[in-house]
Design brief:
The complex is a heterodimer of chains A (331) and B (247). Chain A is of the alpha/beta class. Helices cover 34% and strands 24% of the residues of chain A. Chain A is built from eleven helices and 14 strands. In chain A, helix 3 (115-125) packs across helix 4 (130-143) and helix 3 (115-125) packs parallel to helix 5. Chain A is globular, with a radius of gyration of 23 Å. Chain B has 247 residues and is mostly helical. Chain B contains nine helices and no strands. In chain B, helix 1 packs across helix 2 (50-82) and helix 2 (50-82) packs antiparallel against helix 4 (96-125). The longest helix of chain B has 42 residues, at 4-45. Chain B is elongated, with a radius of gyration of 18 Å. Classes of the chains: A alpha/beta (331), B mainly alpha (247). The interface between A and B is medium-sized, with 36 and 32 residues.
């Protein structure tokens, strides 16, 4: 069953309701860990289309990694199904592996290999003949600007370079579904751009990307759709643009004070997030006007170091989703 | 699924980087340990009968195999399992048995220089004939299968890496007991129990080959028994690994 946000919801007839055109279709996944007071993943459903970059966002402990580990078959769900390219691969990593490449958060298996060996071995183990694996490795290293480090042991690289080597290994073998858990963590600007260019090429070729990230600013620029998880549950699943429209009547007011603020947060209204001398608050437009009047007059203006007004970002959406979900739970 | 032999070869060659990445130093330690034990025992038992001297040399050689293929492999696999490193192989279209065999074969290769050096030095030190030294090849291979199987099982079976380390260390101690203490002076029931344990099969087979009258049917039987035992351990290790991927 499809909702208007493009998610697939659990249905009694789910077996006959599979979207075979989807690169992957996740239906009603549930997973609880022994001794935990709640489910790590609770009834999560979505599908990812070929050529789409699909993001999974959420705070630490939201269930993102548990979800992707079920997606690639490394973790068996208590309930629900995972279909990749139309085939049921629920809890079967070996079956999923024919279609899926996975980049985990930590890639300790590669540390003793040279960068070239890590990528070439992965390509070989994904079924490429020796010559093909060698050629693809050379291409991937060039694409990710790793050629100069080809002979260096992965364990000797910096954190960012090691991550880049992991991305290169994940891209080897040309899988149609790339599941990447924080692929750009620790990368400098040039390396991040190289990764996004590489992923864009795969996307243009029809590959789907499932991306777990904490970097909301980066996610905003590359994601086609976003699944927001809070305490294992789906709180939103839509395009970044439509998610932001849900908060279209709001603006974000950022204030930076030189010293102690001469106002109290209550003078601005809304939930002020204070980080040292920096305040950030989301307000309806009219309230923002009143808050600005209060800020731009008298002692407050004199104490200001900087201020800014901006439409809500994906980060604001994430925070609002978390807050909404928290309120629902306490109600 | 990728063909078994291709997967094993790829995992094997990828793991060979381990030797260059610091594992080599531990391999040297394993060799030096056995050489030191040989030198010590030469000092206290150099004039013992030929059977006892052959047993000591054979035990020292197989101790090198056990140190690397059981103890080190168990610790490596347990560390990979605890750190999520086995997920890398779990998300590739390879059979669990291929991953286990690839690791075991690479660690067996690490042991080759130490085995050759210890065998040559031991036979020279204890004045043993070199005529049947070729038996070292099948004995080392079946020893690598048996100890590698135990190493993989010790590394992949337990939930906690500390348990794997303990299993590896205790295993090495057991091999040293079975290998380095000549069975002759042992009480009858201890000697019988020792001879029955698969840990002693390769030791006794190679020791027999180093005497002037090798018991060829006994050697063949012990090597076959060791290989069979190793294959069973490898199968159990592959099963444990496959299960760990599907928690």
């Amino acid at each position: 069953m499809k909702s208007d946000t493009g998610t697939t919801t659990p249905d009694a007839d789910s077996d006959t309701d599979v979207d075979v055109s989807a690169a992957c279709a996740v239906n009603g996944l549930v997973r609880a860990y022994r001794g935990a007071d709640r489910r790590a993943v609770d009834d999560v459903s979505f599908d990812v289309r070929p050529g789409e970059v699909f993001g999974v966002l959420g705070r630490n402990g939201a269930g993102k990694t548990t979800l992707v580990r079920m997606l690639v078959g490394l973790l068996r769900p208590d309930d629900g199904t995972v279909r990749v390219a139309g085939a049921d691969v629920t809890g079967r990593a070996a079956d999923a592996a024919a279609h899926v490449a996975y980049l985990p958060q930590a890639e300790s298996a590669l540390t003793d290999m040279s960068v070239r060996t890590a990528v070439e071995t992965t390509a070989r183990l994904r079924g490429l003949p020796r010559a093909g694996a060698r050629a693809e490795t050379a291409d991937l290293l060039a694409e990710l600007e790793l050629t100069g480090l080809a002979g260096t042991r992965v364990g000797k690289l910096s954190g960012g370079q090691r991550r880049l080597a992991g991305v290169a290994a994940a891209l080897a073998g040309g899988r149609r579904l790339l599941v990447l858990d924080e692929p750009t963590t620790g990368l400098d600007l040039d390396a991040r751009r190289a990764v996004w260019r590489a992923l864009d090429r795969r996307r243009a070729g029809g590959a789907a990307v499932v991306l777990v990230t904490h970097n909301v600013l980066e996610a905003e620029t590359v994601l086609d759709r976003v699944l927001v998880l809070h305490r294992g549950r789906t709180v939103a699943c839509d395009t970044p643009g439509r998610l932001k429209e849900r908060f279209g009547g709001l603006v974000r007011l950022d204030l930076s004070w030189r010293d102690a603020p001469p106002l109290s947060p209550a003078d601005l209204g809304g939930d002020v997030r204070a980080t040292g001398n920096r305040w950030s608050v989301r307000l309806p437009v009219e309230d923002a006007r009143r808050a600005l009047d209060a800020v731009l007059t008298g002692a407050a203006y004199a104490a200001l170091d900087d201020f800014g007004l901006a439409p809500p970002s994906l980060e604001d959406v994430l925070l609002a989703c978390d807050a909404d979900s928290g309120r629902e739970e306490s109600a | 699924m990728i063909p078994m032999i291709t997967s094993i070869a790829a995992v094997h060659s990828a793991q060979l980087g381990r030797a260059r990445a610091g594992g080599g130093a531990v391999v040297v330690v394993a060799t030096v340990q056995s050489l030191a034990i040989l030198a010590l025992l030469r000092g206290v038992g150099g004039t013992a009968d030929a059977g006892a001297r052959a047993a000591v040399v054979s035990g020292a050689v197989l101790t090198v195999v056990a140190f690397i293929a059981w103890n080190l492999l168990a610790q490596r696999l347990a560390a990979l399992k605890a750190g999520g490193g086995l997920d890398y192989y779990g998300t590739l279209p390879v059979r669990p048995a291929a991953v286990v065999l690839g690791f075991c074969s690479s660690y067996a290769v690490f042991a080759v220089p130490g085995v050759v050096l210890t065998a040559v030095a031991g036979m020279a030190l204890f004045g043993l004939p070199f005529a049947q030294v070729w038996v070292l090849i099948p004995a080392a291979v079946t020893g690598a299968v048996a100890f590698g199987g135990l190493g993989a099982l010790s590394g992949l079976g337990p939930a906690r890496p500390e348990t794997a380390t303990l299993a590896g260390q205790l295993g090495l101690t057991a091999v040293m007991f079975a290998g380095l203490i000549p069975p002759g002076p042992l009480p009858g029931w201890v000697a019988a129990a020792r001879a029955a344990t698969p840990l002693a099969y390769d030791v006794d087979a190679f020791a027999s080959a180093l005497t002037s009258h090798p018991d060829w049917p006994g050697i063949a039987l012990r090597l076959a028994g060791s290989a069979l035992f190793g294959v069973c351990c490898l199968a159990l290790a592959a099963r444990a690994y496959g299960r760990s991927l599907n928690r």
